[in-house]
Records
---
Amino acid sequence: TVVKIVNELERSGDEIKKIAYKAQQMQRPDRLTTVRLHDITRAAALAEENLRLALDAFARLDVKAAAQVISNDEAIDAAFLANLRQLISYMMEDPRTISPALEIVFIAKSIERIGDHAKNIAEDVVHVVKGKDVRHATAEQIRAEVAE
């Protein structure tokens, strides 16, 4: 399980590297980039906090914290979909925004994947402590499993 968690951390690092590369490509400060990056920043903060919580859950073998990570992932996924819908609207309204909007979509997807990696770590914690594979369980089922 430790190897799986290390793999999830490595994948998170790869996503962070992609975000940094895309951010460097987006050096020109146009309105779309500024407005949309504000929303992406909130999603990034959620993903960062969830990754920290997942690592803390692993360090302490805390299944309640792991269950919280799994629940929090739903908010990260919802933020990604909301950002995606808004960016699609911008692209439909003004085709000149397609290129910068797509760059932001790629960043948003990387943030969402970081959240997924945190969730995978949390699922591994539940597996180690409870001996149950919860990868395909709902957040409610996992909370019930943790409460036992």
---
Amino acid sequence: MMAGVTVVLKIAKRRGLALKLIKLFKSTHLGPSLLVSSIAFLFAYQFFTISKALIVFLTYLTGQFVVGWTNDLFDMSSDQVEMRTNKPVAMGEISQKIVKSSIFLSLLFCVGLSLTGPLGLKGGTLHLFAVGCGVSYNASLKSTVFSPIPYFLAFAALPATVYLGAGVAVPTWLVLAAGLFGVAAHFANVLKDMEVDRTSGTLGLPQRSGLTLTLIVIAITLIAIAIVLGEQIPSLRITIYTVTAISLVIIFLKSREVGFQVTMALALADVLLMISWVRPR
């Protein structure tokens, strides 16, 4: 009888630990973290072997984990006020101590992989700068008029880190397009929760600008990306312009419902075009 109880307790303990790990990884904003890391992998695979590209993936993933965890840590109070049940840290499902320890451990791996991995000293240092941009956004810049700047710099740095690691000259147009992608992502990300953010005091540039101006900025950035890509890939220029135009119509008509998803889908398609075009020839 006692042996059976012991087994049940052990299983419960393991399940409890597994549940905490799931919630801990949920706090990394796992979807966006995997997306950014996958984009870095695809860029890296154009220049490196698959094993080195996977190291770049892990390098970016550890950096994204640092950004994700610090986001939930800094936002804990506002998330509690807004009763965001999808935030384990705010709901007390994970202790701050565990999150802080995870940030420290992930940062150690991030620094080590960045400076000794395929990105090299220059590319690795630039990647750490990009991680710093994400953390500075979480800490303070997200509630200022400068909120788009960390997004622009961090996303612009993504392809540049790989090029520097490969010892190849970084195309200016690629850095510009990647940075604009970051700005579009930032403005689109606030569409659904703009009023909630205003109430909680999160007043970045999109929240201060209002819905109409936010949509205009999204349109300008996506059009600018389309123009840059159209100049680099003349054979697909008409297709790029047409898809962008249709997407913008949907974004303006259904901004709060699907604005973010459509913006991200279009931006991701643009990124895939960039990756296919930068393949060494």
---
Amino acid sequence: MVGFPALTGLDGAGWTRLLRWLADARRETPVLELAGMHHVFRAEDVRTVLSDSRLFSSDRTRLMPPTAQLGRGNLTMMDPPDHTRMRRIVNQAFTPASVKGLAPTIEEISEDLVRGLPPARFDLVRDLAYPLPIRAIARFLGLPEEEYGRFRTWSIGFSRGDAMQLDAMHRYLAEVAATKRARPGSDLMSRLATAEVDGAPATIDEIASLSGLILLAGHVTTTSLIAAAVHELCVQPTLDSRVRADNRIEDLVSEALRTRPAFAQVTRIAAQDTTLSGVAVPAGALVSAWILSANHDPQLNPDPQPFLLDRPSRRHLSFGHGVHYCLGGPLAQIEAAAVVDAVVRRFARLTVLAPVEFHPLPTLSIRRLVLAGQAHGS
């Protein structure tokens, strides 16, 4: 195999071409060294890369600008034992009960955003899938909604790796964290500020970094999932009819999560010499674990290509695996289901008005989805 296929037309033939290429890679070159990186395609190997921190390190701070504050206290870039300590702090604050309690807020925000969509033409990502998680998570953290414009600016900076924007966000969140510690409320950031592990609280810098990660990185999965689920409704009329008639929104969201993960690939660094599928991977090598490929591996999901609401066993690595399993996964699914529910109740039919645009690797998620919505009874 030579190089990657062209990553174009990912709403149609290009997506089929990519999945076929990944299937060939799993069979012929399960570990492919290309462009200075070892690409890993089989589900078993991807799971190992994601979960075995002895062999594959998540500490990628050396790859970031030295001024990027989000690298400090960032759970996704930590290995045990530092990761273990910080995860224990987050687990005390980010509980299943607190996530479940946010459901009415998510439904309220979803209804508000969907009600404001101009039916003749709107961008689902810009107008709905993007603002919903930022607003919901900001409220969850206890941040003022009037600051939403700043959060959006920082989110754009985060996606572009803008160190100045990340530093500005970190300073703001550090000030808020200090206030929450002095006068805690019932919000998530207050719980982070007052949580302790072995009798010691997190530092203000750590709380700011954790909050920034939850605010910004936390929205990526939800935005991607909402766009992927609604896109399937647009391009598969039979699927759309079944989802509406049989109330299969949760199955729609779960299958969209499997077929189009928010990150097609994630990066780790080999901590020692090892092998994957019989291929040597030297210490220090950059390793790209292809979640998209793993989710379409027949070893994980028989007959993986079709989008099936009735899939009997829906297994995926979209939220990671092992110690880095995404804590916000259940929240993302609640948010996506609430949005899809609000959309199908307002619109009887959705029509794609322009070519769908996608982000480049490592995500390949939908960046722009321009739609028109036909109201019920019209």
---
Amino acid sequence: MFTSFTNAKGLWLPKMVRVKQKFDAPVVEDIPGTVRLELAKLSLLKSINAGDTVAIAAGSRGIANINAVVKAIVRDLKQIGAKPYVIPAMGSHGGATAEGQIDVLKHYGITEETVGAPVIATMEVMQIGVTKDGLPVLIGKDAYEADHIVVLNRIKSHTDFSGVIESGLMKMVAIGLGKQKGANMYHRAFFRYGFEHVIRTVFQVVLASGKIAFGVGLIENAYGQTARIAAMHADELEMMEQKLLVEAKKLSGRLPFDELDLLIVDKMGKNISGTGMDTKVIGRLMQNFEPEPEKPAILRILVRDLTEESNGNACGVGLADFTTTRLVEKIDRRATYMNSITALGPQKVRTPVYYDTDKEAIENALETVGLTKPKDCRVVRIESTLHLREVEISESLLPATATRTDLEIIGELREMAFDEDGNLKA
């Protein structure tokens, strides 16, 4: 049992109040119906014949309604006589094993029983070409052996870089379908050529192979709900993804304030972001060849726990300054290190200063913010970087809410509440 060695115990902690953020938030109400309408626009019978095998590529992120979307795609492909199956397209995630990646999909409700199609996985890759820079282009054998590939992913800001295309369908084609071997090679190439360049050039080779039948891009609103479903032919994918990223950024969630002394994050995890916490939300990229964002500017970050869906993969824990013993004890070092080495980001899995209780962690974090008294610190507490609708803010931030039409106070100002074990209450 490790106890604080500072004089932090007994500090007068800031009072907190719950507020609701108001974001523009369109929602797709009928997932299966919308998928059907989108796929109908593609006239699939013109490109997919009865009896053709179709690999539906699904990733490792906690995407809203992902199982329902996969099920709907399977349904429509079967209706034209195709033989769909699902494959994991997640690079080295799931411990870089086929079994681990199938288990990741299972966590998101994607199994043969739930979506109506077999789930097949292998880490074996096949080379289908070479980029103009001389990089071998690899895709998983599970995708290579299909007559067609369907790429399905959420389109959003990337946690490691900013560009015209970031995290979405093209990245999945390169990093996801490339399995561990491809993902590792492309991440190394990022150092020389840059993220966006590598993703685009690898995608262009896969596109030229004729394997991609179509893509389905998903956009989520700030509340983590499906805001848009867009299906597109393979040759439209690059242009459409650029447009959808602009839309996604407008809808994305953000913290209510740009300057904080302490951000408390209840949970991080792979189902929330590839880096456990969305780097664009917390304002920390920690990437050797990308500048840090100017905003938000957060002095200290405390992350309290790791989601069950992460299966011990704590990539991104190093983005925090403080954490808890319970999070550290949940870390699967093999899975975490495998993922971070593949992504060339060992700095993001450094273990932060950690304490046995939330109370100790908060007190010690507030000891490191400078001359500001703990009770006067600018503190925000969030459930995760994916769930920003309702957050807690400290008393010192209340005056700034007076003229904010996008913030609604929905609770009473109160002391931080801890349970008998010294951990924050919900």
